[in-house]
Design a protein that fits this description.
Blueprint: H1 7-17, H2 22-28, H3 35-42, H4 45-62, H5 66-80, H6 85-99, H7 126-136
Helix pairs in contact: 1-2, 1-4, 2-3, 5-6
Length: 161
């Protein structure tokens, strides 16, 4: 489908294809903001076909298959194998990563023995402590949490729970 004859319809279709809402695309195309009219124009057959065409062209250009990438890496290897071994080896390494030849890297996200990660705040400044409190304060709990005292003065055992 060629470019739409109405320039504002074309601008509207392009804005929709970029991901704008119909109302925002309508304003971007130079129309006065009207949600109803924007919705109606977005359902126009020519506009919706143009949006689909623009999206499909973008998808075709963006699509680069794994085979394409491997082919490019192989051509780099072939071209550089005699000239620069480091580049050739890098191309092989990248191709191996793409093919999953390397074992996944293990990351330790716990402290010694699988416990909590120790954090020493003894030398933290007041500003650093205030920043930490701003970040973690909401997570520290409040009334009704397990570690909060019971405002009624009773305990769970005596409440009949």
């Amino acid at each position: 489908m060629p470019v739409l004859k109405n320039a504002r319809h074309e601008a509207f279709a392009q804005a929709l294809a970029k991901g704008m809402t119909a109302t925002d695309a309508y304003s971007a195309a130079g129309y006065k903001g009207d949600r109803t009219a924007a919705s109606r124009l977005s359902t126009n057959v020519n506009v919706s076909q143009r949006v689909n065409e623009i999206k499909s062209r973008v998808a075709e250009k963006a699509e680069w298959t794994a085979a394409d990438r491997l082919s490019a890496l192989k051509s780099i290897f072939d071209r550089e194998a005699e000239k620069d071994a480091r580049v050739a080896i890098s191309a092989i390494a990248e191709a191996n990563k793409m093919q999953g030849s390397y074992a996944p890297t293990k990351r330790e996200l716990s402290g010694p023995g699988g416990g909590a990660i120790p954090i020493d705040l003894t030398n933290a400044t007041d500003d650093e402590l205030a920043a930490l409190k701003a970040i973690f304060g909401p997570l520290a709990g409040g009334a009704g949490d397990d570690d909060a005292s019971d405002p009624s003065g009773g305990s769970e055992e005596s409440s009949g729970a």
